[in-house]
């Protein structure tokens, strides 16, 4: 049973530009004193790794801290890799990279006390979350997290804690609580966004009833099994204003999305950004580890536009235009280009990398519909194509993002859980 998500975020076109150094061969009750860099691996690492970033261990003013929240699902060294299933060996590499880069892995308690209180943290921090309750979290990921002394949060949905098939047992979860795990809710049944939308369409009472069961019921059940909880993770990233308004009534103080982006002290605590690290796309982890992303956005824009001419054909959104974050489509009328080979047209969009833009043969237009709203401005679009004689051409433009008052959510369902 695979977790549904309609995201496919690649950073291939600019991945090398932003790529970090290569990877080397509660409730507000702290579950255990871990994550302070005092594991055997961490102590040995300090002796052999030069950590150039002085902010790796020193607290800074709260507004100067940014947190990369990582989201994982399932692990295996033998099963086929998918978005939701990662090689255990790659997970180890990623945890080792975090250690060698000198990044502070924080607990959920520290995250909440920083965001909601007065706690000061280093400038660059990482929060590790794992969704659903797959048994491989216990068998594969947990030993690695324990070895590095990293705290982590398990977002569990209560119907998937039976110990049957690939699920964990409550006893496994309690053992992990003794070694750095904090428990959060991932609902009762992990409904698809399509189910939520159907109940929403039935009216206020129907939607309130499903929230009471999925959000309120899981809060109560997880509290009975593992002690008080106070965080929620939206299944499939589906979130509505009604959910945000209702969550505090059940006792939640923060809720996490599937929308990528660094978290700062001004983050909406009911819509916390999170990088979902896919098993088949390592660029997402690299992007999450790039803490220069805000500054890099302007560098990326000038770099791309400096090296590529503006498009010699109509595009949407227009160059330098201002568009709302829920852009329905990005398009370019490449059919006006003489001698173009339509099969060679490629589109790259900042934040998504190379995207599956399709050329309509009748209109000569290449277009792509973003699966998510844009969270970073400006958005850079780069097109490349070849002439029939094989000569490569490039063009690029950017548009700015204007925020609306609507709540972000996934645009597309994915019926593979």
- Rg from Cα: 22 Å
What is the N-to-C order of secondary-structure elements (H for helix, E for strand)?
HHEEEHEHEHEHEHHEHEEHHEEEEEEEEE
The description of the largest β-sheet is: 6 strands, parallel
Percent of residues in helices comes to 25-40%
Category by helix and strand content: alpha/beta
Terminal CA distance: 5 Å
Approximately what portion of the residues adopt beta-strand conformation? 15-25%
Kindly report the CATH topology of the largest domain: TIM Barrel
Task: Walk me through the topology.
Blueprint lengths: L11 H7 L21 H9 L17 E7 L1 E3 L8 E3 H13 L3 E2 L2 H9 L7 E9 L2 H14 L3 E5 L13 H8 L3 E5 L7 H9 L2 H23 L4 E3 L7 H10 L3 E3 L18 E2 L6 H6 L4 H15 L7 E2 L5 E3 L5 E3 L7 E10 L3 E3 L2 E3 L4 E4 L10 E9 L4 E11 L15
Parallel strand pairs: 1-5, 1-10, 2-3, 4-5, 5-6, 6-7, 8-9, 12-19
Antiparallel strand pairs: 11-13, 13-17, 14-15, 14-18, 16-17, 18-19
Helix pairs in contact: 3-5, 7-8, 8-9
């Amino acid at each position: 049973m695979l977790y549904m998500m309609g995201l496919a975020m690649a950073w291939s076109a600019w991945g090398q530009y932003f790529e970090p150094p290569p990877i080397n061969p509660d409730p507000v009750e702290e579950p255990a004193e871990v994550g302070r860099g005092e594991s055997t691996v961490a102590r040995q690492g300090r002796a052999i790794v030069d950590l150039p970033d002085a902010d790796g261990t020193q607290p800074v003013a709260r507004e100067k801290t940014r947190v990369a929240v990582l989201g994982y699902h399932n692990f295996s060294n033998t099963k086929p890799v998918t978005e939701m299933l990662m090689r255990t060996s790659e997970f180890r590499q990623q945890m080792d990279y975090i250690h060698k880069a000198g990044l502070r892995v924080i607990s959920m308690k520290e995250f909440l006390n920083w965001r909601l209180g007065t706690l000061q943290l280093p400038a660059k921090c990482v929060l590790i979350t794992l969704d659903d309750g797959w048994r491989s979290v216990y068998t594969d990921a947990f030993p690695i997290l324990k070895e590095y002394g990293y705290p982590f949060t398990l977002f569990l949905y209560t119907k998937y804690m039976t110990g049957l098939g690939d699920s964990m047992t409550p006893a496994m979860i309690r053992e992990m609580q003794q070694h750095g795990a904090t428990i959060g809710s991932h609902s009762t049944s992990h409904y698809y966004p399509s189910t939520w939308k159907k109940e929403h369409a039935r009216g206020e009472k129907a939607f309130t009833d499903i929230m009471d069961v999925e959000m309120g019921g899981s809060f109560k059940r997880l509290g009975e099994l593992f002690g008080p909880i106070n965080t929620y993770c939206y299944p499939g990233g589906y979130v509505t204003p009604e959910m945000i308004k209702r969550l505090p009534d059940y006792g939640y103080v923060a809720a996490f999305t599937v929308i990528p982006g660094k978290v700062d002290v001004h983050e909406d605590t009911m819509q916390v950004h999170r990088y979902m690290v896919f098993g088949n796309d390592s660029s997402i982890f690299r992007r999450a580890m790039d803490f220069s992303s805000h500054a890099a956005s302007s560098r990326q824009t000038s770099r791309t536009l400096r090296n590529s001419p503006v498009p010699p054909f109509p595009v949407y959104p227009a160059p330098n235009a201002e568009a709302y974050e829920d852009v329905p489509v990005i398009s370019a009328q490449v059919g006006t280009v003489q001698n173009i080979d339509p099969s060679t047209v490629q589109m790259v969009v900042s934040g998504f990398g190379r995207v599956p833009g399709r050329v309509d043969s009748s209109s000569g237009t290449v277009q792509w519909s973003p699966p998510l709203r844009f969270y970073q401005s400006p958005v850079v679009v780069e097109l490349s194509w070849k002439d029939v004689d094989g000569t490569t051409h490039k063009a690029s433009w950017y548009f700015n993002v204007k925020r609306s008052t609507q709540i972000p959510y996934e645009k597309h369902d994915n019926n593979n859980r």
